[in-house]
Amino acid sequence: QDHDGKTGRDGPNEDIALALEELAKLYRDAVHKNKFSRESYQKVTNIVRNVPYRIESGKQAQEIKGIGAQMAERIQEYIDHGRTMRAVFEDTPETRAIAAFGKIYGVGPALAHSLVARGARTLDDLRNNPDKYGLTGGHRFGLEFYDDLNERIPRDEVTALFESIKRTALKIEPRLQIDPMGSYRRGEETSGDLDILISRDPSDGGSHSGVILKLVKELVAQGIICHTVSTPSDWAALECKWMGTGRLTATSKLRRIDILATPHEQYGAALIYFTGNDRFNRSLRYYANRQGYSLNQRGLYKGVLRDANRVKQTEGTLVASKTEQDIFDVLRIRWRPPHLRRP
Ligand code: DCP
Ligand code: MG
Ligand code: MN
């Protein structure tokens, strides 16, 4: 089936497949009881996974055997509306609630779904019964700052917040490499959060090990970081991730912040990953697979063998990771500036 990496979960339409699969799950968990819909979504999910080229429109989807007009319409809605498609596909109180709950900071699609399955329909249902729904401190916090944390951040504010964090970081480690990532690096006018990548050239014997811990402590003391939502399992590791919230000044809105540290020799691979967007990453990984490579946030590898379930059997050999250019060169595609990385 997908041993060659051309279709299946690494295929060019996996984002569409995942969107359809979420809808299939919606039906499966008896939020709806429409067996026909559940089966048709699952069927089309599998068909979409096995299409070896990118589906660009609903019209094109409808030409594929097994995809009817209704499903084609849903695929077009996904292409038009992306992540918010659930509410668009099926405009019911249940789907609206799943979409709204999924936007609570710290709540993923599975929990959003289970909250609806357990009877919650509005944010206030959750706010008024946090114990009944087993919500953690983190979830309650996400509910409290729901509006702030879901608002897009103007570019000027992202710049100012990043510069303020960078200033503190460079005091801790003057030779730190620190750059803003995600939508900001792609030049977008607003961002959902502030993404920061840090690293450090170890050739002089120095290291960025432990810098995130010092940085977070210092920013908490300054009142810039307000909450920690997830911490690295090992603060000293060269590769680790911190997630939380912060604000520019005491009166500014609360914003989401992601900080990623990466070993210096993997900087290029981390840069590609953290610049995104997620669909660009997916299509680049798919393209790499077609050339016999495997790309992730650590590097570009050759000779990775997977079984029929896409589970890695061998690690493969690292062929490029240091710079974006190195990776694009091996793949023999022209380096693409961040603002054009939105397929
Ligand atoms: N990323 C990815 N796959 C994911 C999540 C993230 O490839 N499931 C990568 C690509 C993203 C980058 O990480 O561009 C940053 O993730 P964000 O969720 O912060 O997304 P963006 O910064 O692109 O958009 P936003 O402005 O909404 O934050
Ligand atoms: Mg972002
Ligand atoms: Mn982010």
TrEMBL record:
It comes from the Eukaryota. Transmembrane segments: none annotated. Coiled coil: none annotated. This is DNA polymerase lambda. It comes from Filobasidium floriforme. The chain holds residues 520 to 862 of 862 of the full protein.
